[in-house]
Design brief:
three-stranded mixed β-sheet, N-(1-d-carboxylethyl)-l-norvaline Dehydrogenase, domain 2, about 290 residues, Rossmann fold, six-stranded parallel β-sheet
C-alpha cells in the first residue's frame, strides 16, 4: 500500500517514522524542507507539492496545526480533494471542528474517495512509540482499508461511527485533558505551598482516586519547571478549547468546567507564551497566589 503523509510536525514526524519501520511505501510533504529531509533519510520519498503526493498514493494522511490549514490543504486550490481520485482514502489526523470534517467528507465523496476524520491522542511520545489512540469517523469500508496503516501508529484504534464522530471524540478527550490539566496545576500549587514534594505527591496520587494520566505526565515538568519549547504547547489547547466551547454553544449545552479551563489556559498563553507546555497554568495560579 502506498501512503502519503502531509505535515511532519511533532506528531506527523513520529507517525511517519513508524510507518517506515512497518515497511510502508511512504511519500511525505511539509512546508519545512528540513522536516522532509529527515523523513527521506529514514526511507521516505519527497513530494514537492500536496497534489504530487496525492497522485502517487492510495491513502493520504494529514497531521495539520489548525482548522484553517486543514481547510486549505484539503479543500483549497491545489489541495488534496482537487487531486483525489475514486477509491482513495483520505485521512485527517488533525483536531478540527465538526463542520470542517463533514465538509471534507462531502467533497471527497463527490470525487468517489473516502474520507476519515481520525484525530489522535498520546502526544509526541505516543507518536514516536507508535502507541497513539486513534479515533476514527467515516464509512466502515474506508476505515477497514486504512486500518493496517493505523495499526502501525497506534495501539488503541477505534471506529467511532459516521463522519465527524472521530472529531467529536477527540474534542471530548481535549475537554478532559484541559480540565484535568488545570485541576492538576491547583493540586501541585497546593502541594508546594503545604511543603510537599510535587513528584512524591504525584506518585501517591497515581495509585489513589485522585490520579490521572495528565497528573502523572505534568508532575515532572512542574517540578523541574521545564515549561518552554514543549511538544505539547499551550497554543494547541487554546485552539482546541475554542473549537470545543463553540461546539457547546452550537449544541446548547453548558460546559462550565471547560469555560474555566479555557480562561486559565488562554491566560497562560498570553502571559508566558504560546510555546509553553500545557502544564504551565501552574505558573498562572502561582502568580495569582503571590508567587
Amino acid at each position: 500500500m502506498r501512503v502519503g503523509m502531509i505535515g511532519l510536525g511533532f506528531m506527523g514526524s513520529g507517525m511517519a517514522a513508524n510507518l517506515l519501520k512497518g515497511g510502508i511505501d511512504l511519500t511525505v510533504n511539509d512546508i519545512l524542507p528540513e522536516k522532509v529531509e529527515r523523513a527521506v533519510s529514514l526511507g521516505a520519498r519527497a513530494a514537492g507539492s500536496v497534489g504530487a503526493l496525492v497522485e502517487r498514493v492510495d491513502v493520504v494522511l494529514a497531521s495539520l496545526p489548525s482548522v484553517e490549514v486543514c481547510r486549505q490543504v484539503f479543500l483549497g486550490p491545489g489541495g488534496v480533494i482537487e487531486h483525489a481520485r475514486a477509491g482513495q482514502v483520505l485521512v485527517d489526523h488533525s483536531t478540527v471542528d465538526l463542520v470542517a470534517s463533514r465538509e471534507c467528507a462531502e467533497a471527497a465523496a463527490a470525487k468517489g474517495a473516502g474520507f476519515l476524520d481520525a484525530p489522535v491522542s498520546g502526544g509526541p511520545k505516543g507518536a514516536e512509540e507508535g502507541t497513539l489512540s486513534i479515533m476514527v469517523g467515516g464509512e466502515r469500508a474506508a476505515f477497514e482499508t486504512a486500518r493496517p496503516v493505523f495499526d502501525l501508529m497506534g495501539t488503541n484504534v477505534r471506529h467511532m461511527g459516521g463522519s465527524g464522530s472521530g472529531t467529536a471524540m477527540k474534542l471530548m478527550n481535549q475537554l478532559l485533558v484541559s480540565v484535568h490539566t488545570c485541576a492538576a496545576a491547583e493540586a501541585f500549587l497546593l502541594a508546594e505551598r503545604a511543603g510537599l514534594d510535587v513528584q512524591t505527591a504525584a506518585d501517591v496520587l497515581h495509585v489513589s482516586w485522585g490520579g490521572s494520566t495528565i497528573l502523572e505526565r505534568n508532575a515532572p515538568i512542574v517540578k523541574r519547571r521545564e515549561f518552554a519549547g514543549s511538544g505539547a504547547p499551550v497554543r494547541l489547547f487554546v485552539k482546541d478549547l475554542g473549537i470545543l466551547t463553540k461546539l457547546g454553544r452550537d449544541l446548547g449545552i453548558a460546559l462550565p468546567m471547560s469555560n474555566l479551563a479555557q480562561e486559565l489556559i488562554n491566560e497562560t498563553s498570553e502571559t508566558f507564551g504560546d510555546d509553553y507546555d500545557v502544564s504551565a497554568p501552574f505558573l498562572v495560579l502561582e502568580k495569582r497566589s503571590g508567587g
